Amino acid sequence: MKNRVNRVVLIGTGFVGSSYAFAMLNQGVAEEFVMIDLNKEKSEGDAMDLNHGMPFAPAPTKIWFGGYNECKHADIVVICAGANQKPGETRLDLVEKNTKIFKGIVHDVMESGFDGIFIVATNPVDILTYAVWKYSGLPKERVIGSGTILDTARLRFLLGDYFQIDTRNVHAYIIGEHGDTELPVWSHADIGGKPVNTIINEKEEYMQADLDQIFINVRDAAYHIIERKGATYYGIAMGLVRLTKAILQNENSILTVSAYIDGEYNQEDLYIGVPAIVNRSGIREVLELTLSDDEMSKFRHSAEVLREIKHSVFPS
Length: 316
Known about the structure:
- The structure is a single chain.
- By secondary structure, the chain is of the alpha/beta class.
- The chain contains ten helices and 14 strands.
- It has helices at residues 15-27, 40-51, 95-111, 125-136, 149-163, 196-202, 208-219, 221-229, 234-248, 293-313; strands at 7-11, 32-36, 62-65, 76-79, 117-120, 143-145, 170-171, 174-175, 183-184, 190-191, 194-195, 253-262, 268-279, 282-286.
- The strands form four sheets. A six-stranded parallel β-sheet has the order 3-2-1-4-5-6, with helices on both faces. A three-stranded antiparallel β-sheet has the order 7-10-11.
- Helix 1 (15-27) crosses helix 9 (234-248).
- The longest helix is centred in the C-terminal third of the chain and has 21 residues, at 293-313.
- The protein is globular, with a radius of gyration of 19 Å.
C-alpha cells in the first residue's frame, strides 16, 4: 500500500500560477496541491474554485491554500511569484526586482525543511534559477528553470503549421536565454526523422526565409501576446505541467529547461536553456548537441549576455 503521496507546492497564484494549477487539476498530476500567495483571499478563492471542478477531474487531487511550513513534505516547489513583465520591458529588465523577492521566498521555503526539487518559472528565468540554486544550497540537479520549454513548443507548433504536420511529430529545439538572444537549432530539427534543412532543399514550396521568419515569430511571441492581452500564461502553464509530470513520473524525458552547465557547450557556472534528461531526481544529464559554427557562436553570445547579468547580481 502506498503511504506517501506526491505533493506540489505553488508559490505565486497570478496568471501563470493559477493557469498552472488549473492545468495540473485537469491532468491529475499530483495527489496534493498547495497554493501560497501574499494575496490570501485570492488564493483561497482559487482553491475553492478548483475544488468545485473536482467531480470532472481525471484523478482526485487535494487542493488548498497553505503556508511555507507545508513545503517540508513537498516533492516539488514551483515558483511563479514575482513582478510581471510590462509592455516594452524585456525579461532581463526584471532581474533586480525579482532577485530581491526570490531571496525571501527561498529562505522561507528552506526554513521549512524542504528537500525536494525547485521549478522556477518567473522571468528572467535563467538568472532567477541561478539565484534559487545559490540561495537554497540544493544540488544543481534539483533546481530547474522552465528555460526555453515554451519557446521550443512555439517553434514546434509553427513548424507543424507550416509543413502541415502534427506538432507532436515535429522535433526541434530553441536553446540559450529565454529571451531575445535565444536561437533555433536548425541543424537538429527534423520531421519524422527527416531533417528540416533537407526538406527545405528538396521542395520548392518551402524556403529558408520562411524558417527565419518562423523563428522571429517564436522569439517575439511574448511581446505580441503581451501587447494584446497583457501577459502570457496558458502556454507556459502547460509547459510547467509537462515538466512536473516528467519529474513525478520519473520519465527520463528530454526537455529544453534552464539547467546548470559546467563545461558543456564550453560554458560554465551558468543556468541556460538546453536539452536535458529529466526524471525523479531532477536533471539527470545535460545533453550536449553538436552545433554548427553559427549556432555555437550565437549560443556563446547568449551565454555572455546572461553571464553579464548574473555578475551584476552575484559578482563573485
